[in-house]
Amino acid sequence: MAFYALKNHLTTETAILGLGQGLEAPFTNWIRAIPWSVAVPTPLPLVVEENGRLLPFYENPIPVMKESLLNVVRYSGVNNIDDYEVEIFNPFDERVYDDYRAINVIGAIEAIDEELSDGENLYGSGSCFSGKFYDEIILDESKIGDLLLFRLAEKLSLIVVSDLIRNKIIEKFSEEGFYFKPLFEDDDDDYNEDDW
Q: pTM of the predicted model, to two decimals?
């Protein structure tokens, strides 16, 4: 099975979101991959900082999905997402959007196959820090089990989706607003963002 990092594709025509008033720690950190142990104050306030077309998915400042996208993901077999009410305020036209949900992906899987992946230790051997820069990531599917969407423990900022979820999203939403970054990049791949 192929796996991809789910990314939003921002352009000069898309809106950029920011944190709304009153949203404070710990509710600004959504990459923990564990359920919240305290009540989440809802609706979570977000604000449009740069006007444009709203995307169905945003990674930042907190991960949010349009309800219709979340429904597609859930109906495709994903059951490890907690979601919370969000209100997005657009000060440019005074509109409030309430058809988005903040998503908390439950499950950080340590799935990189260190022997097959091409990586370089960032901190040298013997360091108390761990980390690698990867040119190629190969996942050990035996560690993933039947999960179709999860956070990669070695890089918690990544939401990883299986090809099944990727295909369902493209089928319902086309690729507009999304970028599915392959975890293994070919030399011919034209996506050059250096975010591993």
A: 0.84
- What are the average pLDDT values for consecutive 10-residue runs of the chain, which has 196 residues? 90 92 85 92 95 94 95 96 97 97 95 78 46 75 94 89 94 83 56 41
Distance between start and end Cα atoms, the chain: 21
Please tell me the predicted confidence (pLDDT) of residue 120. 66
Q: Which residue shows structure tokens 């299986």? A: 162
DSSP conformation class of 41:
P
CB 27 within 8 A of CB 84: no
Question: Residue 42 region, left (φ>0) first, then alpha (ψ -120 to 50), else beta?
Answer: beta
Distances (CA, A) of 3 to 22, 123, 148: 36, 27, 9
Please, how many CA atoms are within 13 Å of residue 35, restricted to the half-sphere of its CB?
5
The confidence score (pLDDT) of residue 166 equals 94
Query: Long-range pairs for 26-33 at CB < 8 Å and ≥24 separation?
Result: 27/62, 28/61, 28/62, 30/62, 30/63, 30/102, 30/103, 30/104, 31/151, 31/156, 31/157, 32/104, 32/156, 33/105, 33/106, 33/107, 33/108, 33/150, 33/151, 33/153, 33/156
Q: Are strands 81-90 and 64-66 parallel, antiparallel or unpaired?
A: unpaired
Cis omega (within 30 of 0) for bond into 61: yes
Alpha helices (H) in 50-150, listed in sequence order: 67-75, 141-144
